[in-house]
Amino acid sequence: MTTIAEISLPQPRAKNLRVEDLGEIIREYNKVTERLQESHVQLEATVQALRNELSEKNQQLARRQRLAALGEMAAGMAHEIRNPLGGIQLYASMLAKDLTDSPQLLQLVNKISTGVKSLDALVDQVLHFTREIRANPADCDLADVVNQAIELAGHRLAGILCRTSGPRPMAVRVDRLLLGRAILNLLINAAEAMNEKSRKGKKGAIKISWSASGDGHFRMSIADEGPGIPAQVMDRIFNPFFTTRESGTGLGLAIVHRIVEAHEGTINVTNRSGGGAVFELRI
Prior knowledge:
By secondary structure, the chain is an alpha+beta fold. The protein has two domains: 15-131, no CATH class; 138-282, Histidine kinase-like ATPase, C-terminal domain (Heat Shock Protein 90). 56% of the residues lie in helices and 15% in strands. The chain has helices at 13-98, 103-130, 142-153, 176-197, 252-262; strands spanning 138-141, 161-165, 171-174, 205-214, 217-223, 266-271, 277-282. The mean pLDDT is 81.
């Protein structure tokens, strides 16, 4: 007969194992939850970046469509204006021949001819803007293109210091003439802005910097120390005929935009915190 003292109580080993297994399952679950949370955060960041990129692309597309529509309208108007201008110029020249003996009247006719020639030159610029711009890329040194543009700006940069920063030499594949013209227009635009801000001898500096951005592409920025661009006109500065200055046709920046577009690049403008504007080209 077995006594109570001889009976051994069962050990709760199986129960302990089950508790340990459950604890391991909970720990693994927590790890999976943390990884899912991290993935969720990364996905949110990626989605936001894609949204920002899409918004920027939509703005660029809208700008291109707007410029295309304005270009077509400008081309039609230019042709319609040129025909009567030719007639006015013809009659003015005929009238000038008949007024050789009347200096005062001849002077008035000459003013008419001068005005017609000025309008005709504007029509030429409009037609040039509306023509299709095709880039013919070739290997060249970007630093050399910048230096030539600075030299061409010449007297327009009088009293303005022009600083450059970037690799020398830096091989790029672009249409040298077109890109040089775009840089020249941006330099002239910056100089005019700085001349408006300061009438003193010391006008400040323009900084041109460039760097490679991979896959044969590059970035270039042209920063001035002018008054900057008012927020209410920021979206319109690349529109043809839009200008905030008393003189000028408002075609300079529009042509720059088309040249950059011909290189399948982008151009953006921002205001510097310390004053002035920055134009950034990505090609």
